[in-house]
């Protein structure tokens, strides 16, 4: 016959709480990792766009991205 004591009940609840917190924390770490990797990727893509066809211009004349945006909005 199984006898459940107060200590057993406390340990079971404590273990359940620890499992829940570990899973929540691991999900937060995963979300943060994906967010930061996406931010880094978008930063690299933006820098590549600026340097290849942006502020340096297509022909290297210095008239690039801001001029293109101004022309596109007109």
Question: Could you describe the 3D structure shown?
Answer:
- The protein is mainly alpha-helical and 74 residues long.
- The protein has one domain (6-73).
- It has two helices and no strands.
- It is rod-shaped.
Number of domains: 1
Question: Low-confidence segments, ≥5 residues, pLDDT <50?
Answer: none
Helix/strand class: mainly alpha
Q: Please tally the β strands and state the result.
A: 0
% residues in beta strands: under 5%
Task: Supply the number of helical segments.
Answer: 2
How helical, in percent, are the residues? over 70%
Main beta-sheet annotation: none
How much is the average pLDDT?
73
Radius of gyration: 28 Å
Distance between the termini: 84 Å
- Can you tell me the overall shape? rod-shaped
Quaternary assembly = single chain
SSE topology string: HH
Keywords: Membrane, Transmembrane, Transmembrane helix
Sequence-ordered SSE layout with sheet pairings:
Blueprint: H1 6-53, H2 65-73
Brief digest:
With about 70 residues, the protein is mostly helical. The protein contains two helices and no strands.
List its salient traits.
single chain; 74 residues; mainly alpha; 2 helices; 0% strand; transmembrane helix; transmembrane; membrane
């Amino acid at each position: 016959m199984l006898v459940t004591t107060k200590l057993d009940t406390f340990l079971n609840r404590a273990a359940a709480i620890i499992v829940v917190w570990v899973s929540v924390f691991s999900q937060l770490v995963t979300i943060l990792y994906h967010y930061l990797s996406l931010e880094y990727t978008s930063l690299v893509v933006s820098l590549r766009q600026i340097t290849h066809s942006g502020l340096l211009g297509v022909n290297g004349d210095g008239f690039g991205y801001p001029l293109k945006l101004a022309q596109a909005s007109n």
